[in-house]
Amino acid sequence: MTATVFIDGESGTTGLGIRERLAATPDVTVKSIAADRRRDPEARKALMAEVDLVVLCLPDDAAKESAALAASLGSAAPKVLDASTAHRVHPEWTYGFAEFLPGQAERIAHSRQVANPGCYPTGAIGLIRPLVDAGLLPADYPVTINAASGYSGGGKAMIEAHDTTGGPAFELYGLKLEHKHVPETQRYGALSRRPIFVPSVAHCRQGMLVSIPLHLDTLIGKPKAADLQAALAERYAGCELVRVVPPTADGKLEIEGLNDTDRLELTVYANEAHRQAVLVARLDNLGKGASGAAVQNIRLMLGLHAGVAARETADA
């Protein structure tokens, strides 16, 4: 049986990525609205009533309005996946990072409202939460998160600037320390202290590196790097899309290494002599950081688990 999906905001970067991925999925049909009616609430509501699931690829305020429009259909309302920031910490929405907690994929599968994670938080939470849960990283630890992304995650104006004039080679931003990804990182990272988050943009279209420096002697039990690696490996054992990998021999990591994939790689780099470590997550900001994660959630919500299961079978 073929499921039907409406992408509200399909012309943006994330929407186009979702549509492209779903086009290669024979058990999902994407329904669209005429370009001149995309801002017509009644036309959108009518299409919402026809589909199994709606994906919101809209600015936050518009996403809230669209979610309310879907909810107004009552018993005929479709399931909703929101790719904006609007509902990521809302108590009535399920957080769409299938691997970050045991059983989260099942929670997503049974939810009617799922919030797709942010790209930066996917890497940060993927590193932080297992260590907090394992009792290695204190919840009140003064976490600092440094991250670099390809410019495709910065919206139309940034994409145009880099594509036409070259854009800056590297740019720090969010230095007022009010980035919209901090609330979900703190909440789902199980941190009681607000982390410092310093994002940046590199002159590459896509790719992402998220890094978190740690002084090992300030952690609970003064663990070794191998203990951190083991905690991450235990959390993601058997995961299809999230892998814990050994550090590179030369201590270098290239930002575009996972481009055009939906994978997330986590690594612990360390110098035991100095009792210091750096946790690093690598992903494609358009893959596991956006459209890839959205399609994974769409399939879970529609009961189409094959091919995007959060965990492989034990003998896979």
- Give me the number of helical elements: 9
What would you call the structural class? alpha/beta
Number of strands: 13
- Seen as an oligomer or otherwise, the chain set is single chain
Give me the strand/helix succession.
EHEHEHEEHEHEHEHEEHEEEH
Structure report:
Helix content is about 30%, strand content about 20%. It is of the alpha/beta class. Strand 12 and strand 13 (about 275-285) form a beta hairpin. Helix 1 crosses helix 9 (about 285-300) and helix 5 (about 120-135) packs parallel to helix 7 (about 180-190). The protein is globular and about 65 Å long. The chain starts with a strand and ends in a 15-residue tail after the last helix. About 45% of the residues are buried.
